Amino acid sequence: MIALVDCNSFFCSVEKVFHPGLNGKPVCVLSCNDGCIVALTPEAKAIGLHRGDPIFKMKDIVERNNVTIFSTNMYLYAAMSKRVINILRSDIHHVENYSIDESFCYLDGYERHYNLTDYMRGVVEKIRLYTDIPVSVGIAPSKTLAKVGSKFAKKFKGYRSVCMIDSEEKRRKALELFDLADVWGIGRQTLAKLNYYGITTPLQFADKKESWVKSRFPLPTVRTWKELNGIPCIDTSEKVQKQSICTSRSFGEMIRDFDTLKASVSDFAASCANKLRGQRSAASSVTVFILSNRFREDLPQYCNGTTVTLEMPTSDTIEITTAATKALKAIYRDGIHYKKAGVILGEITDASYIQQDIFDRIQNRPERNLLMEGIDRLNHHYGLKTVRLAAEGEPSLLWHPKSEHKSGNYLSDLNEILTIRI
Fold first, then answer.
1. How far apart are CA 116 and CA 378, in angstroms?
2. Calpha distance 281→14 (Å, rounded)
3. What is the side-by-side order of every strand in the sheet holding 162-164?
4. Greater model confidence, 150 or 364
5. Tens digit of each residue's pLDDT (9 = 90 or more) over 36-74
6. Which residues touch 189 (CB under 8 Å, ≥6 apart)?
């Protein structure tokens, strides 16, 4: 059996840990640049707020209902996520961290010594006691069914945080009541195609013959069908190498000069290169795009992008940033108020299998790779962007996003450690 441990409204729950007076009150966490709602509590949903709502359009509801707003603080959330995962690994031998707020726990063999439902309720209580983070658990033969179970555990208090789907009767009842659009692996296009064939519930889909599914849908959907029938076939343990890596951001204030825009693009390029090295791969193309503020109809509108092809695949921050700067110079237009920019790395390959080029103009590439490794170690130890290129500019420049409601990094920064007034 597989258990999915899902932290409830994770971003909001973390904020409430350090602000206990907010229990039972509407809370929202905003996206980068304080633009849209990305997480909210049930109390916030009850007054008409939804994930994805632009906060400026919801201002009246927020003020009328005294909704507490926080800016996204990924450092704090990641630190709390690590604590939850460590608790899981102290009680369960094989834990697979799937996302910042979800983990798969493999319970094979545990049924011989424990009642799985009671055992996982004990884990839920331990997480609550140690971190004050509420979690929901779904237990089932497959990961997709476990996700279904966790949704029921979160929605219905009668499950006491743990829902186990361990029989054919429970499986069919769960799939009959579950929303087809919420099934893991079924996107909008697949949903539309299923509806075209008259399928409106997960149970109707699961009851179709395998040959019927294979003749009409791609392999990922066939795997989802198998998972809904209790056949485990989705392997999330292997990290799939991304085919492209993108870093983009809306600016806190509009930018008019090239140097500031260049600093933002250089920072995004460096972030992409860091991610590239993190998955041990290299990229052969660098794409840069820039956009004006489409909501300011009183200003000139402009958007453009271009791609620079590298001579050979690389993950070198200096090389990638140089290419990004070259691309920016090609598309920059003076007199425009820029609101957003981004960098995309493409044509990604495994760094272990790069064909060397005899005409490579960078003669000290091995030394440059060692430099990148050294920078990564320093940044990992002392904090992100401790060592950075001069082209990235200072952290306080205009292009950094707004975070007017950001809480402190209480778990990872001694300068922002939580203080208590007695």
1. 43
2. 33
3. 94-99, 102-106, 2-7, 135-140, 162-164
4. 150
5. 889 999 999 999 889 888 888 888 898 899 999 999 888
6. none
Q: What pLDDT was estimated at residue 356? A: 65
**Does residue 116 register a pLDDT over 60?**
yes
With left for phi above 0 and alpha for psi between -120 and 50, is residue 66 left, alpha or beta? left
Question: Is the Cβ–Cβ distance between 2 and 104 less than 8 Å?
Answer: yes
- For residue 226, give every residue at least 6 positions away whose Cβ sits within 8 Å of its Cβ, in sequence order, or none: 142, 210, 233
Residues 6 or more apart from 178 whose CB is under 8 A from it? 148, 151, 152, 201, 202
Candidate list 15, 43, 102, 227, residue with the active-site label:
102
**394 catalytic, yes or no?**
no
CA-nearest of 385, 377, 379, 368 to 282 is: 368
The predicted-structure confidence for 306-345, as pLDDT tens digits, reads as follows 999 988 889 899 999 999 999 999 999 998 999 889 999 9
Q: Report the pLDDT value the prediction gives residue 353, as an integer from 0 to 100.
A: 67
Give the other-Cβ count within 10 Å of 359's Cβ: 6
Most distant CA pair in the chain, distance: 71
